[in-house]
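seq/struct pair 1
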Amino acid sequence: ETRVLSRYRYFVNGREPHRVVVSNVEQHSWLGYYITTPPGIRWRKDTGSGEMEPQSEETLELKVSRTVGLGVHEDIDLTNFTQTATKFIFEIELDSDFADQAETFERTQRGKLRASWRSLSARRAELAYDYQATHRYSHQGNTGTARIQRGLIVKIENSDSPVRYRDSRLRFEVKLKPGKSWHTCIKFIPVFEGKMLRPLYECRQFFGTRNDLDRKRHIFLNESTQFEAKTEPTLAGVVEAALFQAKH
């Protein structure tokens, strides 16, 4: 019950994009769509109803495809849907505090948190958090020292432009011609008492049966309780569909 990621936000030239829709796809997968007006593009005001938003007419789209399998893998894609080239700074703000579930409002632990940054190549880098805490205890006749060690490794891979890290933000310089896209992968690897939970999904593996978690999930869906209703003009079909969706 340890929170390994306490802050995570996207910025385009210092501004958060507008959220269009975010939703689970399957139990372990999630899609998010965000839009903003590409920096440097002048928008001509809507002369019809006057109610059109600039980002819906001149659109820079941020699509986030996220899969959870031990660790978390995230594909980030930016697409320029305008007829004009654009360039901007894309940033991801993140932080980690390793708070217990009961500490989200008032912190009681007093540990040491360290962060380290490594640039591995032009397209790869790594941000690592390490947290350790100890305290003496005396409870029902038992005394001793309790220790906790937690960590989080954030890997940036397959980036279409170099990444830098400063002031708790990953920073990318992005240039996009009309209709073109930019991509990077973000991997989150929790570390519990020295054991790394590496993501079982790689880049562009949003669908498929590629690992043991996929196989177990499909066994459950195929062998768990099924519901059938008579095809009559009643609400039974609606209930059946709701149960089916809830199981998935």
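seq/struct pair 2
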Amino acid sequence: MAAILTVTVNPSLDVTTSTAKLEPQRKLRCGTPVHDAGGGGANVSRAIRALGGESRAFVGLGGNTGRQFAALLQQAGVDFIEYALSGETRSSMTVMEEATGLHYRFVLPGPPQSPQTGDEMLAQLERIIIDEKVAFVVASGSLLPGLSSDFYGRLGNMVRAQGARLVLDTHGEALKGALSGRPFLIRLNEIEARALAHETEHDVPVAELARVLVDRQIADVVVVGRGEQGSLITTADEQFSIAPPKVQVHSMVGAGDSYVAALTLALSRGWSLEAANRYGVAAAASAVTRDATQLCSLTGTEELFKLTGKPIYFGEELQASPPSS
């Protein structure tokens, strides 16, 4: 199996709880909190582990919160490499309002770092990629304050130079700065796709936007997540959509990370892009049926994989019969 390395430079100790009703100016009594080692890449590694796969997680940690995070990651059975940060690893909180079932997420910034921190991280990551013959690098989540916005772009160039593939899931300035590194695969939502394509007219089809992004060579594969409508996958040679199976949604937290985890794991096992994305959609569907603190499960993902719709191919360049999964 090809080696997978996940990168989380700004992890978060996630605290999840519930309260009867969210109201201002009142002391709100909450239920027993659940703590998880969160942040995009760490979640991806946890989900890969849940799916029966293996990965290594590179995480930047600092302070007492960082030590608690490391203990939780170890309990989850994730093999990880810790980069020591100055300051305290951030915490984030998800509160479920019991009256409505809605989730409210409070996300804090990470500890500020010097620009040199990014250089040191990249140097260490390069050594890991070379020494461990890493085939897939998953960079997911936000950047630490103080790191240059082109951090993921520099990582992408490094990954390509070593013959590996970068799977990217980020947003904002970190996303814009990553494009210079041309990731192998980039996961976006529709708003991000429109922004990157410099298209503000909402009557322009998402499929057209995705083709524009691929033509501009921002990535080999552009995946646009569309919630209940599933995912749209675009490359230079093909474009198809995958609809998710019908499930009862309990929480959307963790769906995206579960998708990326299953997709990358399947690709590392030699699956086709089509089958790997179907597996990703199934994992996301598994995640939304579970509590907010939980990612996908192996049993749920495999059962839903059987129910996930076959890809729908379209576009003038796709008149030939699509390959089977």
